[in-house]
Amino acid sequence: MELLKQKIVEQGVIVSDQVLKLDGLLNHQVDPQLTMQMGKEFAKRFGDQGVTRVITVESSGIAVAFATAYELGVPLVFARRKKTLLAEPDMLCERVPSFTKGIVTDILVSRDFLGENDRVLFIDDIIANGDAARGLIRIIARSGAELVGAGIVIEKCFQPGAQAIREQGIRLETLARIASLEGGRITFVD
Ligand code: 5GP
User: Fold this and answer.
1) 28: part of which helix (H) or strand (E)?
2) Is residue 130 a known part of a binding site?
3) What CATH number does the domain located at 31-170 have?
4) What is its quaternary makeup (predicted)?
């Protein structure tokens, strides 16, 4: 998406060769017009898949996941993040490392909102090492739901997450692919 790439260049702040701060766009402020367009794009790409629920992980995936769910006319479920594992017997839970926070958190989804009759589309903001995606994919598998694919706004191609997910046979669509952050420049793949 050209508009997205333009906004990434305008608003992105390169923190290191590995990390791009996107608070103005995804992680602190939300651009509603752009977000709705991203939702439309994901809905177009996955519109023929019979999606019954969109799922994401709180918090930065929620806006674009909402836009996608709105376009598809289905509910949005967001996995909750918790720092400690208290007894949550009715919840599906996976422990994942957090790329930006440097800590491990549990992500939890209630069995009330995900089950074997669902065809699920996973939406998120950024993929780096793929830990968050893998955790959620494990939860979806355990629920008995079918994962139809994943739509992630930004793919950092120099980190292994996206490729690993595709190698599992999962359809992963991304809207902007970053090849490198080296030299203080954002270089896109295309
Ligand atoms: P992963 O689990 O794929 O390693 O990291 C995914 C999560 O970490 C994303 O949902 C995103 O919130 C955060 N993240 C990873 N890399 C970056 C980055 O370069 N910039 C920002 N702002 N967040 C990132």
Assistant:
1) none
2) yes
3) 3.40.50.2020
4) Homodimer.
